[in-house]
Amino acid sequence: MLSTIKNNFGSELNSHLPSCELINGGLRAKNIYKRSLPGKPLISIITVVFNGAETLQDTIVSVMRQSYTNIEYIVIDGGSSDATVDILRQYDQTIDYWLSEKDGGIYDAMNKGIAVCTGDYVGMLNSDDMLSGEYVVQDIVDRFCQTQVDAVFSYLNIVDKNNIKKIRRKYRVSKFSLALLRMGVMPAHPTFYCKKSCYEQAGEYKTDYKIAADFEMLTRLLVRQKIAWSFIDRVTVIMRSGGLSDSGLMSRIKLNCEIVRACKENGLYTNWLFLVLKLPIRLFELMR
Prior knowledge:
Blueprint: H1 2-7, E1 23-25, E2 43-49, H2 53-64, E3 71-77, H3 84-90, E4 97-100, H4 106-116, E5 121-124, E6 129-131, H5 136-147, E7 151-160, E8 163-171, H6 178-182, E9 193-195, H7 196-202, H8 213-224, E10 229-240, H9 249-265, H10 272-276, H11 279-287
Parallel strand pairs: 2-3, 2-5, 3-4, 7-10
Antiparallel strand pairs: 1-4, 5-9, 6-10, 7-8, 7-9
Helix pairs in contact: 8-9
């Protein structure tokens, strides 16, 4: 299937395909490809979306307004039935590559994005998230160039989905440690940028996880691969509340079950008692 994605960049095919088929577009359809330049590595930002027309444009604009210009922007849509594809077509001259087709969920879409991106470094920005300012990517690139690490991460604000000026939680994980991972506390995934080569060595996001494949991936990279990382002391992403892991008691139970599984699969012991220890951390985030 991935070979099909890579070989079907012709925009002429898109106009008459039914919504259940693969539809794609962007600069690559016009044979415009970006590459790394001396002192300006190519940064791939991947947005996955499904029926996200209400918020997708904010996400796209936050990428387009970046001061750093060598960005490859990839959008993977899961075959939306709302106006998502119309929005993607609206930004066809600025998005490097977008794809719309049925998929196996958010983590399958992330795998597709990594497979087609060509940047030196890769970050994930979901369709209800935004980069917090115009210098975010420049700061990320500066840190990579200064430190030669494999990955960087930073702070994230979770805001009210109907009022992005109202901060509901300040996600503040400034370091990685085994103790934090055992409690289910990880660096904020939308702030995490990593060498593509590390993803290639680690393998794909596990699509049999429903909520915590991002936790499993970061655990795999940080614990099993022992990649080098650096923390950027600033908020780089604004996330609207209401994601998969924030949708009720059963989702939280499922999340914690998957966290225990992810730790076990990556040689890190944890249990439900350890997971309870993260509650004071979450309470502190609400009070900041």
